[in-house]
């Protein structure tokens, strides 16, 4: 318990990216009884190299993919193409940041697609009669409220996260269809398209929103007591409870955050398309989870980081962009992405077993 308390102090390392103990770190001589100092140093170096390979494996993959993409599709790294890549995947990235919080806390959310679609409908409708800023705030608040419902189901009623969010996905999606009368809500009001298609200093607003969400999410997780508490809860909820942490409140807050992120993404896509639709976002939940998992955040909770989610998002975005630019079969794209997801999960499981 004292170790947990120490981990929550300002300046302590977050559990998600801390390297596992290396050989010789327990305070005993590195060589140990089984060998001399030289043998111990060699083992330590090998372990450190292996740890780095596991920790940054997806970063190396991203570097290789960028090189492959530039070779396959000359001009891939041009600023114009990179803007297109990021803008097209901005909504997935925004949702993925919120999903990172949920998964680090040991949770799971399959309802973000329905929240995303519903908030696109609400934003398009509200902006027809209200200032766009107020419409945006109301739509995001609705997304956060939906997340609160999920959090209370999981923490207060002890419903399994998978089952709870699968059920609420149906409820939220149905509510969006009822509200919109199963029809798209068009919004051609001047300025409505700014959030999704506008530019500031030549940079798409959608990319700026994506960057802002990533920066804020990264700072909250890595630099605040709240962020370190989420790692503690995801790593061992019972130990966190015994240490005095409000486990239920922390987990619920993570669901509220991912709901709010889905709301922001829904507003962005509605602005981009100038229409709110209850049937969009059928794959965004899986895409967001894929970005988080590929980046290296653990499905078991307690490990991960927002920068890792950025890596996972870029890997998915590069594969899609090159596939579409070169006219590859969409099924090939799905197969490649699937293999990477399975490999990332297998790597996580192997690394966990190796540290035991």
Task: Write a structural description.
This protein has 356 residues and is mainly α. It has a single domain, classed as Orthogonal Bundle (ABC transporter involved in vitamin B12 uptake, BtuC), CATH 1.10.3470. The chain contains 16 helices and four strands. It has helices at 2-7, 37-55, 57-72, 79-88, 90-104, 112-126, 132-155, 161-180, 194-197, 205-223, 225-235, 237-242, 247-273, 284-295, 306-325, 330-355, and strands at 185-186, 199-200, 203-204, 275-276. The strands form two sheets. The protein has a two-stranded antiparallel ribbon. Strands 2-3 form a two-stranded antiparallel sheet. A hairpin with a 2-residue loop joins strand 2 (199-200) and strand 3. The two termini are 19 Å apart. Mean pLDDT is 86; it is low at 18-35.
Count of extended strands: 4
Largest beta sheet, briefly?
A: 2 strands, antiparallel
| N- and C-termini, Cα separation | 19 Å
Shape: globular
- Weakly predicted, low-confidence segments: 18-35
Overall residue-averaged pLDDT value: 86
Helical fraction equals over 70%
Integer count of domains: 1
Topology:
Layout: H1 2-7, H2 37-55, H3 57-72, H4 79-88, H5 90-104, H6 112-126, H7 132-155, H8 161-180, E1 185-186, H9 194-197, E2 199-200, E3 203-204, H10 205-223, H11 225-235, H12 237-242, H13 247-273, E4 275-276, H14 284-295, H15 306-325, H16 330-355
Antiparallel strand pairs: 1-4, 2-3
Helix pairs in contact: 3-15, 5-10, 5-13, 5-14, 5-15, 6-7, 6-8, 6-13, 7-8, 7-13, 10-11, 11-13, 14-15, 14-16, 15-16
